[in-house]
Amino acid sequence: MKGFAGFPEGPVRMTPIPAPFFTDLLAMIDHLGELKITLLAMWMLSRQDGPHRFLFLPDLRGDADLLAALESPGLPGPQALEDALERAVIRGTLIAVRTADPGEVYYFLNSPRGKAAADGLAGGKWTPDRAHSDAPWVERPNVFTLYEQNIGMLTPMAAEILRDAEKEYPAAWIEEAMRIAVERNARSWKYIAAVLERWKTEGRGRGKPYAEGKRKRDSEGEYADFIEH
Fold this sequence. Notes:
- By secondary structure, the protein is mostly helical.
- The protein has twelve helices and three strands.
- It has helices at 19-28, 32-46, 57-61, 64-70, 77-91, 112-122, 130-133, 143-150, 156-168, 171-183, 189-202, 210-220, and strands at 55-56, 94-98, 105-109.
- A hairpin with a 6-residue loop joins strand 2 and strand 3 (105-109).
- Helix 4 (64-70) packs across helix 5 (77-91).
């Protein structure tokens, strides 16, 4: 049996698990593969940004670690994956949307947001961004690590501010705002918060491709007032 080294010291990025999972769903699940794919799906989807969060079957099939985690005696990884997904869909935890292309199946969490995205995809109201779904479970440095590496010491107060920020903004926004702060030699949370608030009120990129909008704002120095010398 492979041993577990233990959880790391200090703040770590947490995965939100809806309370009904523990109060209702957990008691219903009677299959280990279904339990694993349910928890993994919540973790994978929580690491995505954007209005449409989904899992793509070919991506899941291509992940060797995932297949190994689901494999059981007499049931190879690919078959175990599809069996676990089917159980989760029948249970009502996940929603599956199949496209006209064979093998193209998209999975959404059965929540109001997930239902709306699934209905929109099935109705042709939006097209999946494949770049959005590629390896959505790849672990990136969390905001606490990024703060310590680029801004300063992670005090209890700073950790609490970061937790609140994670609830309000996508992780990718916080990461990008920190990168901008470093590039402009404005290593303070006050500056980062100003960038995030501007994106929240005016839109990230103001309707332009983000890279173009960011370069224009940086050259104009819109956030200069928030630089602490």
